[in-house]
Batch of 3 targets.
Target 1
Amino acid sequence: YYQMFAKALSTMELEQFQDASGQQHDWRKELAGQLFQRQQSNGSWVNENSRWLEGDPNLATAYALMALKYCE
């Protein structure tokens, strides 16, 4: 989901967005922060929910890296 979120906002050329409470969000900074918090100690990512094979750290790490690419 993070990768698709990043791709969509990047395609829209949206730098920030406003949530329902009126707060502005720098989505690139916030997304990168969330991904770095979820990174495993060995450098990989893994989804605790293994649906769609996202419990495989190889696949989850690839998705995370693709999402981070949009955060540049």
Target 2
Amino acid sequence: MPTTSASIKAIQLTRAVFESVHGNLGLLKFNVEELIPTNGSNGQESQKWDITCSFFETLGSTAPSRYKVSVNLIDNTITIKKLGGESETPPKTFKVTPTDTDETK
């Protein structure tokens, strides 16, 4: 059974956090704009990623909201900062606890 790459895991973890906050309808047209590894060397895949993503938060949204997300796969923490807009909000950090997945069954 092939293992999932760290970059895909980082995207999946990011999407899971946004779904828990906004609900799955709030993630219409989820789009990864940029995916940058922030560690890893000598052929080792990075376990930390910076992701810029956007999505429509509600059915009535006229434009997508953009976010900068820092993902740490080592301890499953995600720091989210909303980009743009007039009201800058401080970054929020989430710790994701593992659940039963196909890989752990």
Target 3
Amino acid sequence: MPLSLPQLAVLFSVHHQPGAQGAQVARDLGITPQTASQLLVRVEKGGYVTRRASAANARADCWSLTPRGVAILAGA
């Protein structure tokens, strides 16, 4: 699945802040948390990022790149 520029920006943000919450990604990119969430779910379905529950906030997820995500950024 080809990635859009906003999806690549999300991967770039997560790459520079492994374990970042979606709200932090939204702040980094200057987008709403809802938009960041939609983008994160799309790249998760593509296998580029993975999520885990946040230890600090039960309602938040922490995002990290998968090896596939790292590879796509290396080629971007």
